[in-house]
Structures are given as C-alpha cells and as structure tokens.
Structure prediction request, 340 residues.
Amino acid sequence: MSSGAHDPEAGVGRRLGPFVLLRRLALTGSAEVFEARCEESTRLPGCAPGRIVVIKRLLPHALEDAARVERLCAEARLGLSLDHPHVVRTHGLLWLADGETDAWDPATGSSARGEPLLVTGLVEGGPLYHADARDLEPTEPAVVAALGQRLCEALAEVHARGVVHGDVCPRNLLLTTDGTLVLIDLGSACPIDAHPPGGALAEGRGGYASPEQLAGEPLGTSSDLFSAAVILWELAEGRRLFPANRRGPQEPGPREPSPPASLADDRNAAPWGHLHAALSPRPEDRPASAAALAADLEAWLAADSHPSPEHILAAWRRGAAQASFSGAASAVARRPTDAD
Prediction:
C-alpha cells in the first residue's frame, strides 16, 4: 500500500450504507480505507450495530474495472475462509446500491449491483515497526522467536487455503497490548505457484520481497517465509536488511546475511539457523513449510524454558510502548495493498 499523504478527516461523519465513517485510515491509487461504526443490522457475522469495523472501498475509477472488483471479492473469499487468532477477521462483503445493502454470498459468488464494501475487524494494536526502521533496536532472541512462531502459524493457516499472502511486511503485522500478533491485508494474496495480482511491487515493499517476487516469477509459500525472515532479521539486528525500494534481486543487499549480534552465540544458534535457511535466495533451500518453521521456533522456546509467546510479546510491547509505540497505539487493520 502506498503511504502517500491522506486526510484522516476526509469523509468523517458521512453515512455509507449501514456505517458511519469515523476516520479515513489509508488512500491508494484505487482504494480507500475507513474506520467506521455499524449503525444498523447487517447480515454479516459479528457486525452488529455499535461495532467498530474497518471498511475498504474502491475508488470510482476502480469500480469500473471488473478485474479489480473481482480481486476485492477474492480477498473477501479468502478472509471468510480463515478463522485464526493471528489473522485479521473478515466480516464479509456488502454491496451498496441506492442507499441499500445486500450481503454477498461467497459460496455462489453471486453479488448485487452497486458498490462492494469489504468489512474487516478492527485490531487495537500498533504496527510491528515502522517501514523506515526509525523505531528499531536490537531485539532479544526470545522475542524474535516468539514473533516468528506466531507469524509462521498465521502464514501456515493462509497457505493451507492454497494461497500465498504476498505482502508480508512490518506494516501488515499488528501487535496488540496483550501480545497478540495479527497478520492483516489479504489484498495481494494469490494462488500458490501463480503470479501475484497487480503486477509490479508496491512502493516500499521491495525490501521484504523474495528474490523470485522481485524477478516477477510465480510465488510459492516459501516466498512468504523469506519475507518473514527479513522482518525477524531486522528485529534481531535493529536495522534494515535491504533497501526499501529494491526492485530486483541483483540490487543492493547482502546475498548471505550475517547473523545478527543477538543470535551470533552458540546458545542462539538454532533460531539463527532457521532464519538463515529462510533467507536463502533459492526457494528450495528454505524451510519446508511455515508450519515446520513455527514448530522449530516453538521447540527452541520450550527447550530454553521461556514463557508463552504472548507473555513474551506483551512484555516487549509494554516496553516498546514507552518509546516507539506511543504514537501508534491505535493503529488498526486498515491497509489495502498498493497493487490494488
């Protein structure tokens, strides 16, 4: 998603079907995202009057593009198929026409005429860290492993649906105050071994894209693992690994990243070994699956007598809030993909 300037007050107070818009959260070339309050009953599960939700709507020119409308429907289909504590909840898709709404049936694919509104849950949490890494400091190995375990569990759930997330990056990972990591934004997802929708990488995403994604090749599940490993390396080291706007696998960046200082000793050899494998430029040399990597990190945490990932992450979140999270504590699952 482009992080271009947008007016958070744009549209505030306006009625959109059964919703009142509270704040515009993001704006891209083809979509805008709002925090909204449900004012009327809908046929969407969990979207009762009074509920605060996030709405993604297409801009007028994108509504005229059948492919973009279908991509929004595909995002809804995938979201509705997922039920996992570490993946943002999708309430459903509403079609708005002449002031009335009609719920979309993902089973039949039927839709009403008008404007589609993708409705997802609000996540009361801050982004894992800012894209420019200004708030990054070297992170303890247990925190890196706990984040990696929960992120890989979320990815395993997505991969089990036969798709690749395609946009694993810090801004698409939210951490709540109770230490729950939530993966958001399914708009770049594509079937396994297919090309991602929209073609070119979104601005600022090159720093987390796999070599095969940068090369414009079809993506397997290991592409998401590479992106996840970049995030974990950056957390461990406290700095960026690749330039944000890297556009090709041959552009600046280490071919063989060195171990972060916090993972360089023998005691932490296991987490670094997992990350090093996941950072391999060759997909076939990366871990077999997200589930396998999650299990490996879980085993390391258990062997070292660490508490649960949520306990570790909640303590880390509280410490980070004093410095870098204070301005982002109300961030929500609100970001569509730039490729939209």
Remarks:
- The domain at 15-122 is CATH 3.30.200.20 (Phosphorylase Kinase; domain 1).
- Helices lie at 60-63, 66-81, 141-159, 211-214, 221-237, 269-278, 290-303, 309-325.
- The radius of gyration is 20 Å.
- Residues 321-340 have pLDDT under 50 and may be disordered.
